[in-house]
Structure formats: structure tokens, C-alpha cells
Amino acid sequence: MTDSTSRQQNSDGEKNRRSKTQVALHKNIFLRFLSYYMGQRHLFFMDMVCALVIAGTELAFPQILRQLAGGLFTEDKDAIVGSLALVAVGLIGMYALHFFCRVFVISWGHIMGARMESHMREDLFDAYERMSFSYYDRHKTGDLMSRLVSDLFDISETAHHGPEYLVIGVMEIAGSFVILSFINVPLTLVMVAIAVALVVFNFFANVHMRAIFCENRVRISNVNTQLEDSLAGIRVVKGFAAEDHERAKFRKSNDAYLDSKARMYFAMGRYHGAIDSMMGILNTTIVVFGGWMIAHEQMRAVDLATFALYVSLFTTPISNILNFTETFQKGLAGFQRFTEIVDTRPDVEDKPNAPDLAVFAGEISYEDVHFSYDGDDEVIRGLNLHIEPGKTVALVGPSGGGKSTTCSLLPRFYDVTSGSITIDGQDVRDVTQHSLRDAIGLVQQDVYLFDGTIAENIAYGCPEATREEIEAAARRANIAAFAESLPDGYDTEVGQRGTRLSGGQKQRISIARVFLKNPPLLILDEATSALDNESERAVQESLSELAKNRTTLIIAHRLSTIMGADEIITIEGGRAVERGTHEELLAKEGTYATYYRMQFGAGAEAGSVVRAR
User: Of these four, 181, 235, 248, 583, which has the most CB atoms within 10 Å of its CB?
Assistant: First the structure.
């Protein structure tokens, strides 16, 4: 066997394996899609029964008309008139049943699809909530929102129309074909030949349109991403008078979307025009061949009229099913994207039967900790820290040195690459994430307030808190006087992301959250760096109160805020390069002393602000 033959066989084998894998994947996805019908099985059953009734009544009418035209309506006047009342009652009863079933299929059938969509949306949102920070580092918010809305809408349409079109279509196609064959076999074969050509054309047209639909989906996702980005940063946009720049960016993505939609509509226009032309050819063929057969006494005129009615019943469901294949493909593709997210395992997970964290004293230890965001470049390199219970430790150092990452590892926003982090001797990876994060209070530089009232934002994470507890937390955070001065008090709406409040007010609300939570461990991540001096003093008073009797980890660039810490550690290049009290580090004349002189000048003194005593 030659090398080229061997390579060809290996290539063919690989293609076969990939093909089998794809088939198995699509089968698995399809079965999972069907599983969502189980929760709606009663509605699904009624929907299918009504679909069968609709198909049955539509098949029955042309045959009834044929029998009347060839039988009753050929008799004398009295016989016809005497039977019309009975015919009317029968047809009205049949179409009343048809009306009821059509209303049920359109209304409750769509409700069934909407319920399935709702359940999937809840599953997808639950998956989003489970994801680790690293997942959101890799994905755009606009794209995730698009999957939650656009993709699931296509799935809903597939869930409703799929079974309906299939049941009605198969029954009408099979029933009309049988009846057409009884009426005239040669004409039926001509119709089938044109129908086959219709199917072949539809297949190749869908291949072309599928690519346009996929491109359309990507471009609307880009529009959503651009919109979300611009609205989220609207204050920056306004501050830099960059409205024209944002308009230009949005116009570019919007025009790209418009271009893809225009090409989609042109393709759809050509497609439907071709379908209508082929239907016209079919109708013309039936009239010409049927007329020839009538002229040669091979067919009755009433049979030709009936044949034409059944041709419509034969071709319409074929067209519906063929048109639906695109919706089905979009829905199945959307469901595949849905399952990809739902099946994604978070980078940070609880171990099976993990116990809750039990905080006895609040001792924190980092032992030879290494960490990398991308698996290559280490951000933390062999970090060792020990924080005694109730003490305050401050981390200082250059931007990008690893301070914030060090703090993010404690509540397991990310998992260490190697080494360990323990709280009272318990590895944070061995306990539940909920209990771990419940034991840690986090006050960050970028405060996020949810759309709602001041009271609701203070109680975020503690929904069972009473009004008295909320107000007590507000007093300890020095925000009570402000809240009580407002016309609606604690029921004042803060606006989305707290847009109606100042930076200091938002920060004190976030501190009140932590007071209400009352955790034994505390992380202050640049909590005052974005505030003016007056706001900083008010917030620092709250932070000093908050840090009492708690093990506290502080990140700060303003050294004035951490001089009273029990220990200050300089983090540089992912390592602790020096440690000690403020006075000890100044005496060492190292990196900390350099930072100090840069901020205050040689010989300057500054008072302690945060001290956990």
C-alpha cells in the first residue's frame, strides 16, 4: 500500500468519524429538544388532535363537493332544494369544529411554544448565573443577551410550528395523493414530477439562504453588543462629547445588519417568486392536460375541478414544510447554542458533598499560590500571606502587580493554579462557594447599584432583612441622614446603576450592604480611590467602623488610607516583595518608601485612616 493511499484512507476514516459524531450530536440535541415537550404533554396532545381534525376537514371538503356535484346536484330542483338544509348543517358543523381546532392550534399551540421558550430562558439564565468570572472575561454581554432573546424566539417558533406542520402536512399530502390517484393517475404523476422539482429547488435555495441567515444573526449580535456598550458608557460618551463617534460606530454595525437583511429579502423574493412560478406552471399543466383529457372523454369536468382543489392541498403543505425547514434549522441551531451554554461547566465548582465554611476566628493563609488567567502568563507567582484573625492587612504596589487578583482568589472568583488558600485551616476549594462568599464582605471601587430603591439596594443579598435592620445598617454606614432627607426616604429610586446618586452616596450604600450582611471577613478594593476628599472622609469613617473586629484585606493606591494597617505588603510581579508596618517599611527604604515619597514628598507625615482595632 502506498503512502498516498494510506493517507487517503486515513482521511476518509477521519471524515466518517466526524460525520458519525455530527449525526450523534444532532440526534442528542434533537432528543433533548423533544424532552421540553414533556412538561407540556397535555397541550401537545390536544394540539396534535386539533391538527389532525384540521387536516381531515380540509381533505373532506373537495371530496364532499365532488360527490355533490356529481350526484345530488345532477338531480331535479326539488331534490336539490330539499337537501340543501341538511348539507348546510353538515358543512357548518364541520367548519365549526375546524374553527375551534384552528383557534386552539394558533393560540394554545403558540402558548405551548412560549412556555417551552420561557423554561429554556430560565435554564439559560440559571446557566449564566452559574458561570465563573472567566466565562464573562471571554464573552461579550451583547452576544449573551442576543442568545437569550433572539435564539430562543426561533426555538419557540420551531417548538410550536414543527409538530403542527408535520402532522397536518403529512396527513394532507398522503390523503390528497391517494384521492388524486383515484381521480386520475397520469395527471397525478405529472403533478408529482413538478412537486419533486419544487423540493429539489427548495433544497438548493435553502443552502444559499442559510448562509445569509447565519450572517444576519452575527450582525444583529454585533448591533446588540454595540448598543449595550454605548448605553453602559453613556456618561463617558457625554463627558468626552463623543456622541458623533458613537453614532458612526453604531451606524457602521447597523448598516452592515441592514445590508445582510437586504440580501436576505432579495433572496427570499427570488425564492418565493420562483415557487409561485412553479405553482403557476403546475396549474397551467393541470388545466391543459385536464382539458385534453376532457376533450377525449378520459376525465369529467367535475373531476378536474376536484383535482385542482386537491392539488392545492397537496402542494401547500409541501411548501409549508419546505419553508419551515429554514425555521427548523435556525431553531435547532439556536437550541444547539443554548445547550452549549447550559452544558458548559463553570471553571469554579463545588466539590461533591462539600461542607459549608465554618469561620471560627478569621485566619487567612496564602501558601505558595500561583495563578494565571490564560494558562500561560502567571499573574501570581509563589505568593505567601498570613493574616491573623481580626487584623488588617493592606496590599500596595504598581498597577497590574497582582493586588486585585490576590483578593479575587479568596472568594474563589477564580481558582488558584497551584498552592492553596485557607480560612481557619479550611481550603477554600473544599467548601461551598455560597458559604465562602457569604462569609466575605466586598467593597469595591466600582459600585453597582441595581434599579430599585435605597432600601432594596442596602438589603441586596439579605432579602429577609427587616426595615429596622436596613436603617441600622444605613446609620452605621453614614448614609441614613441623606436617605431620610429625601421625600420618599429609603423608598427613593436610585435609577439604573445608581445614576441619581453621587459616588460617595453609592459607596456608602455598598458599605451599608456589608454592615447588614455582617461577614467575619472583609475585602476593601480601592474603595475610596474614585471619590473627592470630602466624600472620601465620610466613606473612610464608615470603613473604619466596618473593619472593626473583622479580618480585613485592603487594596489601595492612596497610602493615606492604609497607614494604620497592622501590616502592609508590597505586591510586585505577583510576589510579596516586602512587608511590615508603615514605620517599618519607611525605615527599610524600599519600594513602599519610594511610593510614600512620591505621594507626600520627603519627610511628609500623614495620619492613619483605616485601622481595625
Answer: 181
Average pLDDT across the chain, whole number: 82
Closest of 478, 476, 443, 447 to residue 554, by C-alpha: 443
Contact between 160 and 110 (Cβ < 8 Å): yes
Amino acid present at 374: D
User: Cα torsion at 479, 481, 486, 487 (round to 10°)?
Assistant: 130
Compute the radius of gyration of the chain from its Cα atoms.
36
Q: Cell 394554545 maps to which residue?
A: 108
Tens digits of residue pLDDT in 355-400:
999 988 889 999 999 999 877 788 999 999 899 999 999 999 888 8
Of the candidates 334, 374, 393, the residue with the CA atom closest to the CA atom of residue 612: 393
Cell numbers 431620610 correspond to 484
Instruction: Label residue 317 left, alpha or beta by phi (over 0 means left) and psi (-120 to 50 means alpha).
Output: alpha
Interstrand relation of 418-423 and 426-427 (parallel, antiparallel or unpaired): antiparallel
CA nearest neighbour of 233 among 221, 208, 213, 250: 250
Copy the grid coordinates of residue 464. Answer: 429577609
What domains can you pick out in the chain, each with its CATH number? 13-342 (1.20.1560.10)
Output DSSP code: residue 415. -
Q: What is the pLDDT of residues 161-179, one digit of tens each?
A: 778 788 888 888 888 888 8
Long-range contacts of 515-518 (CB under 8 A, 24+ apart): 515/472, 515/473, 515/476, 515/477, 515/546, 516/458, 516/459, 516/461, 516/462, 516/465, 516/469, 516/470, 516/473, 517/438, 517/441, 517/461, 517/462
The whole-angstrom separation of Cα 27 and Cα 25 is 5
**Beta carbons of 194 and 282 less than 8 angstroms apart:** yes
In this model, does residue 22 exceed pLDDT 60? no
State the amino acid at position 465 in one-letter form: A
pTM beyond 0.85: the answer is no
460-to-356, 448, 481 alpha-carbon distances in Å? 21, 11, 20
Q: In what order do the strands lie in the sheet with 418-423?
A: 378-387, 364-372, 418-423, 426-427
Residue 343's pLDDT is what? 86
- Give the pLDDT confidence of 466-503 residue by residue, as tens digits: 999 999 989 888 888 889 998 999 899 988 778 788 88
